[in-house]
Every structure is written in C-alpha cells, then in structure tokens.
Amino acid sequence: MFYYPIQYDEPLFRPPSEAYSFILQLTLGCSWNRCAFCEMYTMKKFRERSYEEIAADIAKMRPYANEIRKVFLADGNALVLPKEKLVKILVALNNNFPRISRISAYAIAKDLQNKSVEDLQELRDKGLHLLYVGIESGDNAVLKAVNKGENYKSQKNALLKAKEAGMKLSVMILNGLGGEEMSKQHAIHSAVLCNEIQPEFLSTLVLSYPHGKNHFMKRFKGNFSSLGTMGLIKEMKDFIENLELKHSIFRSDHASNYLVLKGTLNRDKAELLERIDHALNAPDEAGLREEWMRGL
Ligand code: SF4
Q1: Residue 149: pLDDT band by 50, 70, 90 thresholds?
Q2: How many folded domains does the chain comprise?
Q3: In this structure, is residue 122 part of a structural domain?
Q4: Buried b (16+ CB within 10 A) or exposed e, 281-293
Q5: What's the gap in Å between 280 CA and the centre of ligand 1?
Q6: Is residue 100 located within the same domain as residue 141?
Q7: Is 207 in the pocket of ligand 1 (CB under 6 A)?
Q8: What is the span of the domain harbouring residue 154?
C-alpha cells in the first residue's frame, strides 16, 4: 500500500501484521547475518542508513500523513542504531505523521542488551511499542548449532529488559530447528523461555530450506535429520504442553505450517492439544496443508 513513493533496497521483509504499515528502512540487511537457517539478508551487505536518507523517505510519505497509523522499522535489526539516532528518527516520524498509533521493529537480543532500560523506555515513550523477536529456540545446543549468536540466558535477559521498558513482544519459535536429534529439548526449553518472558504474542514457523536442505546442513553445526510432518506436529505438542502463559495470543498459521493453530494461551491450551492429537491420530481428517499449499 505504501510502497510506491519509496525506492526500497530489496528484498524487503516485514511481519504479516505490518501489511498496512509504512515501512521505513533504517538499516539495510542484518548486522549479524550468520544464522544457519536464515537467508533473508545474505545477499545484502549490512549498512546503517544516514539520517538524511531516512528523512528523505519520511518526506516522500508526507502526502499520506492522514493515512499512516503504523510504522515498521526495517531491515533485520534497526535497534542496532545508537539510541540518539533512533530517538531523532522517532521524533521525525511523530512530527510528520500525527496519527501514528504504533511503531514496531524486528529486534535481536544483542541490540537490546546494548541499551539500558532507560534507553528503551525513551524509545518506547517516543512510540516504539512493539518488537518482533525471532528467538527461534530456548535450547542452548540448538542455538549454538544454528549459530544464532545468543543463548537462553542472553535472550531471556534482553527480552525481560524490553518488557521492563514497557515494550510489547511478539516472539517467534522455529518448529523443527533442532531436527530429530534435538526435537524434545528444543520444544521444552523453548516453552520454558516463553514462560519466563510471557510475550504478548507468540508464533511458530516451520524450518524451511530456501537454498536447499544441503545448504542448511552444511551450515548446521552437528547432526541433523529433518523432521517429517508428524514429527513437526509432535514437536508442537511437546512445546504447547510445556507452555504456562498468562495471556499470549498464539498463532501457528504462517504458510510454512502444516497444521494451522490459533488461540489465546493458556486459555485455549486443552483445545489446541486436542487438535494436535487429532492430527497425529487421524492426519487424513485433520486438514493438514499439502506441500504445494505451503507456498515456500
Ligand atoms: S539475526 Fe535474524 S535476520 Fe539476522 S541472520 Fe539471524 S535470523 Fe536472520
């Protein structure tokens, strides 16, 4: 919707829930760019955009000021920028688009750790209300194998810091990331990490291989046997069984998922587990997505 006046540096990614947001690139690529499963920005050389470049994009969007309610800060980790620069950009957004109700961004734990709670509070006060964080797993062995550059503790501390600053969190777990070998521990430790964080939004995606399975396996440090459909669904069962959430909107409806699940956890936990059991016991009746429907 808002793509027209801006010359984006492609490819451009945003969460599905930001489909109608003004997407503003503060950085290009991802400053980490080393996760074994992620090809989002491997073709881009990371760089921070200058304030002048960003201000020029904001100026191009001024004619749409009355329509802009939400802004998403791209690319992979806009929060790598110094707090002062982020504040200046947020102030410019608020001055130019008075009807903004929410600004959001992808975030990685190390960028949150590099800022104080007070820094994050200031960003929150300037409108940065929601962070999308791909924690992928709560299991240290899985995180190490895929070279996430984080561990259970670093992710827990970073996300609790953002929460303390008043930000909302939308976290993502990658179903199948540890393969058959680490499926159980991946499911359980991911659930325990989510329990500690209590995110407002939780979603799961299924591991996919945009450059082929061999390419992924070369980057994976350890043995990896990919899970089949039933293995992935069983892993979801282990994950959900171990969740103890007070009020998290849960979605497992990304195109990569074979079994679509939606609910509020823990309120709908029993119902979701019932659906999973049905899929495991009677897969032909469970309405699983066929491979061609997954659009990957
Ligand atoms: S930190 Fe995120 S964007 Fe960067 S390589 Fe890892 S998964 Fe991809």
Answers
A1: very high
A2: 2
A3: no
A4: eeeeebebbeeee
A5: 32
A6: no
A7: no
A8: 133-296
Binding site membership of 108 for ligand 1 (Cβ less than 6 Å): yes
Asked if 246 contacts 286 with a C-beta cutoff of 8 angstroms, the reply is: no
Place of tokens 């969190």: 169
Q: For ligand 1, pick from 14, 27, 40 the residue to mutate: most ligand atoms within 8 Å of CB.
A: 40
> How many Å lie between the centroid of ligand 1 and the Cα of residue 65?
31
Domain boundary among 90, 106, 122: 106
pLDDT digits (tens, 9 = 90+) for 151-161: 999 999 999 99
Q: Please answer whether residues 203 and 240 qualify as being in contact, where contact means their C-beta atoms are separated by less than 8 angstroms.
A: no
Whole-model pTM: value is: 0.95
Task: State whether the beta carbon of 143 lies less than 6 angstroms from ligand 1.
Answer: no
* Neighbouring C-alpha atoms within 13 Å toward the C-beta of 246: 5
CB contact at 8 A, 78 and 18? no
The burial of 130, by beta-carbon neighbours within 10 Å (0-12 exposed, 13-18 middle, 19 or more buried), is given as: buried
Cα–Cα distance measured from residue 291 to residue 161, given in angstroms and rounded to the nearest whole number:
39
Please state, in angstroms and rounded to a whole number, the distance separating the CA atoms of residues 270 and 251: 15
- Domain identity same for 74 and 219: no
Bridge partners (DSSP) listed for residue 248: 265
237/231 Cα distance (integer angstroms): 10
pLDDT tens, residue by residue, 185-232 = 999 999 999 999 999 999 999 999 999 999 999 999 999 999 999 999
Nearest CA to ligand 1 atom 8: 38
Residues 138 and 88 in one domain: no
Cα dihedral across residues 202, 205, 210, 211: positive or negative: positive
Does ligand 1 come within 6 angstroms of the Cβ of 146?
no
What tokens were used for 157? Answer: 């501390």
Q: Establish whether residue 159 lines the binding site of ligand 1, counting it when its CB lies within 6 angstroms of any ligand atom.
A: no
- 80 within some domain: yes
Q: Does residue 159 form part of some domain?
A: yes
